[in-house]
Sequence to fold (326 residues):
Amino acid sequence: MSEKASSLEKILHKFSAASVPKRGAEEEPIDPPSWRVSAEAASAGSLARYPMLYIGEGCNRIFLISGGKIIWTYDTGTGWELDDIWMKNSGNILFTRMSWAGEITPDKRLVWRRNCRPGEEYHTIQPIDGERVVMAVNAPKPYCMIVNTRTDCVEYKHDIPYENPGWVHGHFRRFRMTDRKTFLVPYLSLNKVIEYDLDFNIIWRYAIDQPWAAVRLKNGNTLINDEYHGLVREVMPDGRTAWEISLTELPPEARLSDCQSCVRLKNGNTILCSRGNNGFSPQMAEVTPGKQVVWCLNDWRELGPCTAVQILSDPGNPEVPGDLQR
Fold:
């Protein structure tokens, strides 16, 4: 199978089919844009580099981009906040909205919705096969669960160790199952990343300030977003740094204001995602292992902030944990 055939590009035609309505029955209006839009902040042609699924905090619209154009959107209502998103092999899209999580079809049917209980928040979701997802729940007593989205049954549930979990909103933004069927947990407000087995015995740990996201790479290293210092660090199993980039190292035209999550591509490049300081800085930058910027997205006329992106041309199975490095 070719790399192109193994990517999700092959199913994007579903989103432009005649059966896709302009607006889905469950779509809800979103808040108006709050960011600055200026002519100089739009880069002609920058959307054409990749087909991608794109979301950002502060904008509750899901964007699907292909051929340099936005080909599909879905509005998820007012309030906070879109944080995590995945396209499955079927074309269905999973996402979290802080107070709820959902799954929508290319023709804009909401086929699964799970609302948070009072005092809880959903910020992270990951498909682990065609029907099941793993989620961490920010809560007075945080926990993770595996949910069957077809039946909405919780098939696994376990408390997540957390010292003094008072500030629920600051618990987690990412929680990932790895290819070894372990859990990789960035503790945003506790300044550490811990890998657990399914019984929550500690396998590996690493101290770092405000880890918004952590990704287990195919080389065995862990790619971590340090939101506090504005850097992305690739850490070896023994704790040594294999690679690191600070936002201060980016050239002025690609200088991101922050970096919440990132994607490691098959070619070795890394895409950094940013909220973009409400229109005053770019949303994404792609850097080589040598830290050269080969692409920068700065388009506030078409898009809002970028918290997370799924590059749909990169090969990999989104329903196999660890197959996509995001």
In short: The two ends are 22 Å apart (CA to CA). Residues 8-311 form a domain with the Neuraminidase fold (CATH 2.120.10.30).
